[in-house]
Amino acid sequence: MKSILFNPIALYIFLLACVPCAHAQIPDPGFTVDNTTAIVITDPQNDFLSPDGVTWGVIGESVIKNNTVENLETLFQLAEAHGIQVFISPHYYYEHDHKWKFEGALEKLMHDIGMFDRGDQLNKEGFEGSGADWLPRYKKYINKDFVTVVGPHKVYGPEQNDLSLQLRKQKIDKVVLAGMSGNLCVESHLRELLEDGFEVAVVVDATASAVAPGYDGNVAAEINYRFVASHVYTTEEFKQSLK
Amino acid sequence: MKSILFNPIALYIFLLACVPCAHAQIPDPGFTVDNTTAIVITDPQNDFLSPDGVTWGVIGESVIKNNTVENLETLFQLAEAHGIQVFISPHYYYEHDHKWKFEGALEKLMHDIGMFDRGDQLNKEGFEGSGADWLPRYKKYINKDFVTVVGPHKVYGPEQNDLSLQLRKQKIDKVVLAGMSGNLCVESHLRELLEDGFEVAVVVDATASAVAPGYDGNVAAEINYRFVASHVYTTEEFKQSLK
Amino acid sequence: MKSILFNPIALYIFLLACVPCAHAQIPDPGFTVDNTTAIVITDPQNDFLSPDGVTWGVIGESVIKNNTVENLETLFQLAEAHGIQVFISPHYYYEHDHKWKFEGALEKLMHDIGMFDRGDQLNKEGFEGSGADWLPRYKKYINKDFVTVVGPHKVYGPEQNDLSLQLRKQKIDKVVLAGMSGNLCVESHLRELLEDGFEVAVVVDATASAVAPGYDGNVAAEINYRFVASHVYTTEEFKQSLK
Amino acid sequence: MKSILFNPIALYIFLLACVPCAHAQIPDPGFTVDNTTAIVITDPQNDFLSPDGVTWGVIGESVIKNNTVENLETLFQLAEAHGIQVFISPHYYYEHDHKWKFEGALEKLMHDIGMFDRGDQLNKEGFEGSGADWLPRYKKYINKDFVTVVGPHKVYGPEQNDLSLQLRKQKIDKVVLAGMSGNLCVESHLRELLEDGFEVAVVVDATASAVAPGYDGNVAAEINYRFVASHVYTTEEFKQSLK
């Protein structure tokens, strides 16, 4: 406060950027894909993206409106074409997760509706085609070598899995982020990757969020991406940026 | 997906909770203050809460509308009256932080406007009354024994400081969260505290967020608190809950 | 330094505890099992504990000397008898882990010898009876409800998995730690659990460490457990403490 | 286990590397300083390195034997000469840290003897020349621009401070580690930096550890550095490697 008043350069920048502050634009630091950049996709799984998934009733409309399913496929294709590694951070709930003694609101909902259920990490019975399985159209990419599937996250962020380590073990410093759902796992990944020291951009229409009465997750996600990411792309803008 | 269809109890819960899903209410797990509960306040500093602070132009209107300054004072008073410990997670930027090679959007803005600036952790010159200092009316509480000031966070969340450790070293399991700004540091603290295994409630009108053209941080914060916290209080509701 | 000279109580404690400092005993804070206590076991897997495992040549002698296999079984039995939850933090390496661009010394060795290899988390082919599988005699415990298997760690500590979260979701504050190997995964779990705010005791003879020419991991583990844990038990002492 | 028997290449590597395994050498992955490399120094403070410090009685002999004080100064000089950034992770205990409800063994000792005591982060009274202050001969380096002092750690590792973030914000991927004390803060920093995805080498004689009856921290540190780091240097070897 004082410091800015007595620092002519800071004051000048402040005046340029902030007057009138009530109309301040949020700066856009920008993002450039280079050979330390990877794409990270959260939860490209049936329970979010298939009309048969347990959340389709609250999220299907957003998925359709954003064209999320096709946009995520475009990201896989662009990655393969341009030699960009893709890391997938999935969401699985095991039987023991249903015995948690407390949960936040959406954690409770996910457990109540059996979302992402899988017996345990050593059990694949009933997994094929379940809500926890990949959306079928993505399997042909995920099975290839340019895609790495890290361990499951358990709340919303990558704090419980090895995503950041796997990125660093490949000397990745910058992340283009997309997936499901926008204001929960994508946003928590965004925030944690920033704290872990990555540069992060988001592809906003390769995400989608749940809509509950009075609470539209898409609105929250779009605001917060703009506040904290280095840049927010549409899928088309990201595609153009690679040319 | 499959699992729910063949599991009559899960299906029943699903039908109760989710049909029609498009109108699904978000569950409210609830929150009860007990002797493992603390209040955590982020950034109760001049740069956010004083009309002289560097962000007042973008955040002052929200602070006034929410009555944030008084509501935070009420939280300090309730804590003292009910023997609840308060932990403050402040935000300081040192000279070397201005040499970062990359920043997200609001990180860039905060550095450009000299927000929370302080020479370094061994330098108090010019600190008194600066934008990084406490709002004066809170000092009489912060100087008391029921308040612990942890290290500074550096992006938005407590990943870079000792907040979680200090809470655990006092056998705290549950957190009532408030402070500044709503969709940045408060929300990042909320998300990280959840990942760290705390139960967390938010006092929504003891926060406030920046408003930029087209991007209202208050809207994002309110949606996301409701999605992920165990409960969202107003200050008045929190006060009533302690009776 | 100065502070102690001018603070009579601190000086008195210092003199009692530390003179002559060269002969200072390390304090023993002690540990009591209560209903917030769990047992955590790292890597109870064939590659460490079976004579057919890939590390038996360097670690078998320590396993036999400590009676590690039987002592770990005793911990499972004590846990079941006393209603103590057990959490297992396993070690799996997937195919993509073999493509890391850099590794520390033992990471390199583990990859070179194919330790804990498993195709990926969605692949159980060849797992049964492999080096990554549980030691057979532990399976009857691990399959029961008092045991929770968390995600795999990837270097040595629980930073890459959900161990701390799973403990907190069961309101666990205190950990009795054992498993393999002593100076690597056990010690890294010990150090990280301390940073995460748990009270931790170690059962030293329910661990064992590798011995390389000039470098005995058991020696390092025993010194460091004593320096940093709240208490170091033998299995017999731990058993007696539960009576 | 099985996998290696049926995999001729892995078996061959295994035979080369490990037969007879009882005599297996630990591999040495090596380390090369490049423009993504920084030096990290823990706790270069009076309480460890000055004959007036509170731990000199247990650690002084090791400091003298290793020539630690001079070797750390050599690292500062080499860094300045070769344009390598230095990051210091200090150790401060504030008044509220003395109210922790539980502590591991050395945490308890450090608090009992008033080690690294400082009122709080907004209080510099009595700091100059105290046990928490820098060893005087290092001040001329620490005051220069090539040195960054991050927040204090509170147990042993950088989990409670912003070290990893500050490194990443300077695009640092590799760390040369040294400082005090060898088997506590240096080793915990080593382990956590590995989990955070840094390549790490240690300069073993620019560290020193406490010796308690029956427990020589230097022995533990030297074994564990060799097991987990990418390379272990002496100060002289590190100097030669820069030529």
From TrEMBL, chains A, B, C, D:
The protein's matches in InterPro entries, at most eight in alphabetical order, are given as: Isochorismatase-like_dom, Isochorismatase-like_hydrls, Isochorismatase-like_sf
Q: Which UniProt keywords apply?
A: Hydrolase, Signal
| Keyword Hydrolase found | yes
Range of residues in the leader sequence: 1-24
Any keyword Hydrolase? yes
**UniProt-listed Pfam families:** Isochorismatase
Q: Which residues cross the membrane?
A: none
Isochorismatase-like domain residues: 37-212
Specify the superkingdom. Answer: Bacteria
**GO molecular-function annotation terms?**
hydrolase activity
- Protein name (Swiss-Prot/TrEMBL): Isochorismatase
Q: Which organism is it from?
A: Flagellimonas marinaquae
